[in-house]
Amino acid sequence: MDKKKKKKFLIVWAAVLVVLLVLIFLMGKPAANTETLQDVMKDGVLHDHNKIKALGMLMNPSVIADWWIMGILLAAAALIRIFAVPHFTEVPGKFQLAIESLVDLADGLARQNSPHRHKFLGAYVFFAGSYIFFGTLFELFGIQAITTTGASVSLPSPLSDINAAIALGCLSYGVIMSGGIAGNHVKGIGLTLKEFSLPISMSFRLFGALLSGLLVTELVYYSISLSFVIPVAVGIMFTLMHALIQTYVLTMLTTVFYGEVSLPQPKKAKKSKAKPKAADIAA
Question: pLDDT tens, 206-235?
C-alpha cells in the first residue's frame, strides 16, 4: 500500500470513529436495564421468559431460529442443485471449486476414519457440519422477533438450546449405531452401547460451548460502559471460534466412532472337540 492510499485509509477510519463518537454523545444517557443480569443469564439458559407465539403455541426463540436455518439450508441446496450443478464443468469456476472443496472435505474425513464404509457417513458429516456451522453463525445477523411480552429479542443460535443439542447428539449416536449394525449386525449394537456416554458428551459439549459465547456476549451488552463497538468484536470472535471448533469436534467424533463400530470384527474360530481314538479306548 503506497502512502496516498494509506493516508486515505486512515482518514476514512478516523472519520468513521468521529461519526461514532458524535452519535454516542447525541444518544445521551442509555436507558436503564429493565432486567437484572441474573434474569438475563437465566433466560439465556432456560428460555422461560422470552417466548414467541407461533402456530398457536409458545416457543423458545431458538426453535424459530432452527426453522430459519433449516429453511435457508434446504432452499440453498435446492437452488444449487437446480441452477448450479447442471452447469458444472471439468475445469471448475470459483463457486464450483468452493462447493467441491466442502464436499471433498466431508468425504475425506469420512474416508480417513472409516475407509471400509464411508458413503453415507460422508453425506451425514456434510449435513451435520453445515447445520452446526451456519446455525452458529446465524446469531450474528441479529434477526429480531417479538415476544409475548411485546419485547424484541434477537434470535439465538439453535444449538444454544439444550433440546437442540441433545437432538443432534442423539442423531449422531444413531448414525454411529447404524454403522455398527451394517458392519457387524447384532454385535454392532453391543459395540455401540459400550460408548453409552457418547450422546451425552456430544450434546453437552455443543450446548456448553455455544451457550458460553451467548452468555459472554450478553454480559458485554449488559454493561453500559462496554456496550459500544466491543460487543461486535466479542460476538464475532466467539461465534466464529465456536462455529469452527464445534463443527470439527462433532464431525470428527462421529466419523471416528462410526469407523470403529462398523469395522468388521474377526470371527472366533470354533473349538472342535477331539474324538478319542479307538486304541486309547481299548487301553
Answer: 877 777 766 776 676 666 555 555 666 666
Contacts of 154 (CB under 8 A, 6+ apart): 139, 142, 143, 144, 145
Q: Which domain holds residue 93?
A: 34-264
Buried b (16+ CB within 10 A) or exposed e, 20-58: eeeeeeeeeeeeeeeeeeeebbebbeebebbbbeeeeee
Q: How many helices (H) and strands (E) does the chain have?
A: 10, 4
pLDDT at site 69: 93
Is residue 23 in some structural domain? no
CA distances from 212 to 24, 238, 249, 264, 276 (A): 29, 9, 17, 40, 71
Domain count, the chain: 1
Phi and psi for 60 in degrees, rounded to 5? -70, 150
Q: Rounded to whole angstroms, how far apart are CA atoms 168 and 212?
A: 18
